[in-house]
Amino acid sequence: MTLYQELATNFERLIQKGSLKVGDKMPSIRTVSKEYGVSINTVIQAYLVLESRSCIVSRPQAGFFVCEKVDLRLPVPQASNPSNNPKEQADDGLIGKVFRNFVNKEITQLSLSVPDESFFPVARLNKCLHKASQTLSSGGTGYDDIQGNFLLRKNVAKWSFTWAGNLGIDDLVSTSGAMHAISLAFMALTKPGDRIAVESPVYFGILQLAKNMGLKVIELPTHPVTGVDPDDVKARIGEIDICLLVSNFNNPLGSCMPEENKKAMVKLLGKHGIPLIENDLYGDVYFGPNRPKPCKAFDEEGMVLWCGSVSKTLAPGYRVGWMAPGKYLKDILKLKLFHSVSGTTLTQEAIGHFLETGRYEKHLAQMRKKLYANSLQFIRAISDYFPQGTKVSRPLGGFVLWVELEKGKDTGKFFDQALSQGISIAPGRMFTLQNQFYHCMRLNYGLPWSDGLDLQLKRLGQMLKQ
Question: How far apart are CA 316 and CA 319, in angstroms?
């Protein structure tokens, strides 16, 4: 046995014994080289062997992590199969009940779709706020341009190079978060009775907004890995007036559409004159080597309204978002003037400063590293503690997992039992208007990992086994 094979075998034994668990970061190559008195090349060869045995996985700029053994993995849920002629479920107030305690620090908030505040660079943001109050002529008390803060739009446009966006400052409109952008798009492009196609499951706020605006929601089959298939849209193209997709790391599935599917989707919808609203606020939280392109990257006709924000990556409470509405820019500006005049000047300027310093990528790299490790820890805990027959998604970005239990479970009813033990979950049927996903739940892994969190997941699993 060669030296690197011996080293790989030693680490594999540590993993098998549980000394190194799924989600743990492996010691750096330099550390192993120093501690074991071997060359860096020997350590690299050993880690490559461990990768080939599916013991560890490498992540760019993050290092190596212990991962699930292929033969021990829980299965991924199947693609959803929503009805073409659905009977809408009655509103029983479940969403309100789930979010009644969302600021309660005594509860383990697995129900939220936002990272814990400890993941955000609060001190840096405070400095940017202070700087904004000094650089703005009104100290931040006055109205800004209707199209939005110039510094913010300038730096969002520059940041679009990460996905070949080539956006200009005047292509963008600032908003009070991504949902505000989606609301403006709905108002500009739809009327009561119009038919909107969305993923299934999808973020409940989108569904409730569409419902409240009198739109007919068409829920599309969605795969936990690849999202919506353009062929499924094509099959119902005559029924669709507008489409909304979360193409990168959908909430709650975590799916990411392959690039060829995004191209095909833009081409298909454009051919039929159907606008696409794209919610891309999770795109920067990717675990692979590169940021996945949004559908907007393939939009040549201005039919894609690209929406984003920093609510999931920097500052949820700042309510800073934006959109690139393409050919619908004038319509969006008119509506924004009527509904809000301008955004929050101070926070938009502060985010503009933060983006301009170049700290955003460094912050994102650290956040992605933590979130990826957390996702592995959560999946390992679910595998260890949850009932047999459980399935779980494998997102390559974002911060939520979609968990599917055996049919017969009702996570809406289970919510109260979990809450009584200080744990909040998001029941699956929140993410549909149809009678489906009763046996599913969404869990947020954007929390600081600890033995206490592991124990809460164990409790959750024990309750589910009862």
Answer: 6
Specify the residue for token string 């999946």: 379
Rg of the chain over all Cα atoms, to the nearest angstrom: 23
Domain boundary, last residue among 303, 334, 360: 360
- Which among 292, 268, 267 is positioned nearest to 280, based on CA atoms? 292
Burial of 153 (0-12, 13-18, 19+ CB in 10 A): buried
Residue 92 has pLDDT above 80, yes or no: no
Give the pLDDT confidence of 178-209 residue by residue, as tens digits.
999 999 999 999 999 999 999 999 999 999 99
pTM given for the model: 0.87
Which residues span the domain enclosing 454?
Answer: 73-119+362-465
3-state secondary structure at position 261: helix
Any residues with CB less than 8 A from the CB of 171 and at least 6 apart, and which? 157, 324, 326, 329
Residues 125-171: tens digit of each pLDDT? 999 999 999 999 888 888 888 999 999 999 999 999 989 888 999 99
Last residue of a domain, one of 325, 360, 395: 360
Residues 276 and 165 both lie in one domain: yes
Mean pLDDT computed over every residue of the chain:
92
Sign, Cα dihedral of 25, 29, 30, 36: positive
Packed helices 3-17 and 40-52: angle between N→C axes, nearest 10 degrees: 50
User: What sign results for the dihedral spanned by CA atoms 33, 39, 43, 44?
Assistant: positive
Question: Is residue 332 domain-shared with residue 419, that is, in the same domain?
Answer: no
